[in-house]
């Protein structure tokens, strides 16, 4: 049995949900509560970060390693290009998405969303333990402070993250030049990785969260400024994320 230990809100976890769904694999999700996840994650995989998958008494963490494991273990509906050059290009761009997009999307989004507990608490607790909404609401001021500290989220760092993210989106847009796929003519792990890392900015159907109609400011304005270049994310979700 395949299990995915995750946070529903996390875009790294969405990357793995998408990979599992794309590969049509049967799996169960175990939704952990942010801040209360550490002992479970460490017991499973030695580190606190999710996503983690378990399969046949084995635990794999780190989204890129998980996709490699899934493709090696379940070769049907592959996400890794077969052509050696395409494969390397895909892995390089995936690394760019994981390192140069994911953390900045998170910082920019949380900088606004953490000021709106009524919006973000349901995202932290959806389909989790029954006591989750009560616990996270009660602990929210402490949790928010801890998250801001751990992820270095403040006004100055959010401004820098906006600049970084804008440059990363420009780089993606320039690479695609109107094409749908990053590498070759086929959907692969790189498209999935880049689109997942940008998805919280686009609020696509299929992510699994009940997104608000629009984001509060200043996030709404930032997202609006990128909307044309982010249209590709929604297109990929429509085509490949049922
Ligand atoms: N490089 C990791 C990053 C995963 C990551 O940053 N996970 C965050 C959620 S978005 C997390 O688990 N944070 C809590 C923690 O590290 O304890 C991957 O690709 O899986």
Structure overview:
- The protein has 2 domains: 2-73, Glutaredoxin (3-Layer(aba) Sandwich); 84-240, Glutathione S-transferase Yfyf (Class Pi), Chain A, domain 2 (Up-down Bundle).
- Strand 3 and strand 4 form a beta hairpin.
- The model has no long low-confidence stretch (mean pLDDT 97).
- Strands 2-1-3-4 form a 4-stranded mixed beta sheet, sandwiched between helices.
- Helix 1 (11-22) crosses helix 8 and helix 4 (84-113) packs parallel to helix 8 (189-202).
- The radius of gyration is 17 Å and the shape is globular.
- The chain has helices spanning 11-22, 38-45, 63-73, 84-113, 117-125, 132-150, 155-176, 189-202, 219-240, and strands at 2-6, 27-31, 52-55, 58-61.
- By secondary structure, it is α+β, with helices and mostly antiparallel strands.
- It binds glutathione (GSH).
- Glutathione (GSH) binds at residues 7, 10, 12, 48-51, 62-64, 98, 106.
């Amino acid at each position: 049995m395949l299990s995915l230990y995750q946070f529903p809100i996390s875009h790294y976890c969405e990357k793995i949900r998408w990979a599992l769904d794309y590969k049509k694999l049967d799996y169960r999700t175990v939704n952990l509560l942010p801040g209360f996840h550490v002992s479970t994650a460490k017991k499973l995989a030695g580190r606190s970060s999710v996503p983690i998958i378990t399969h046949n008494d084995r635990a794999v963490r780190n989204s890129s390693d998980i996709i490699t494991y899934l493709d090696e273990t379940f070769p049907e509906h592959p996400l890794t290009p077969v052509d050696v050059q395409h494969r390397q290009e895909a892995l390089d761009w995936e690394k760019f998405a994981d390192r140069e997009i994911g953390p900045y999307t998170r910082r920019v989004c949380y900088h606004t969303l953490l000021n709106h507990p009524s919006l973000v608490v349901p995202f932290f607790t959806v389909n989790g333990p029954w006591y989750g909404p009560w616990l996270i609401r009660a602990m929210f001021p402490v949790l928010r402070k801890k998250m801001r500290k751990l992820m270095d989220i403040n006004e100055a760092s959010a401004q820098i993250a906006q600049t970084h993210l804008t440059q990363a989106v420009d780089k993606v847009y320039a690479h695609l030049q109107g094409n749908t796929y990053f590498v070759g003519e086929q959907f692969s792990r790189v498209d999935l990785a880049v689109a997942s890392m940008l998805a919280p900015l686009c609020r696509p159907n299929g992510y699994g969260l009940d997104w608000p109609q629009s984001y509060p400011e200043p996030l709404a304005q930032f997202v609006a400024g990128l909307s044309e270049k982010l249209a590709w994310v929604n297109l990929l979700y429509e085509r490949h994320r049922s």
